[in-house]
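Example record

One chain of 199 residues, shown exactly as stored in the release files.
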Amino acid sequence: PLPLFSHSFPPFLLLTRSSLSSLLVVRQTNKERKTKMALPTISGDSIVLVICYSILALKMFFAAFYTGYARKRNAFPTAPEDAKFYKSTVSQLTNGEAVPEQVLRAQRIHMNDLENNIPFIFAVIVMYSAYCNETAITVLVALFTAARVAYTVAYLFSLQPFRSIFYSLGSFLTMGMVGYGFINMFFHLSNPNPNPAAL
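Predicted C-alpha cells for this chain:
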C-alpha cells in the first residue's frame, strides 16, 4: 500500500487497497438497495383494469360534455342566468317550455352513467375485499366496461332493443360481482387455508 503521508501526493489521493475495497463494498451495497427499491412489474390484469377504469371515467366526462353541447346547440340553458351564454331567452325555462329531445337524451345518458358506475365501484371493492381471483375480476370489469360503452352508443343512436340488452347486461354483471364477492368470502370463512387459485 501507499504510505499514509507523503510529500509527493496530496492526502486525498493517498488511498490504500483496503480503503479502495471499502469504497467498492459501499457502492455495491447502494446498488443492491436501488435494485430492491425498483418498481414492481405490472401484470397483464393490472394493465387491463387501468384501461377499463380509464374508459369508464372518460366516458362519464364525455356524457357531461355532450350534455353541455346539446344544451348549447339547442339554445336551452341549465339556469336562467345562463341564457345569455346560450343565446336564448329565459322564457324557455320560466314558461315550462319542452326540453329538446337531444338535451333529454344527453341528460339520461349522464344520469344512467352515475346510477350504474357507483354500484359498480362498490362491487369491485367487494370483490377485492373478499380476495377474489384477480383474473376473474379483470374479466368481469372488462365485460362491464364493454356493456356500458355499447349502451351509450345505442342510446346516442336510438338503437333498440340493443340499448336495453346492454343496460341489462351491465346491471347483471354488477349484481354478479357482488354475489361472487360474497361467495368467495364464505368460501374463505369455511376454509381457513384455501387454495389461492380455487376461486
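Notes: Residues 1-7 have pLDDT under 50 and may be disordered.
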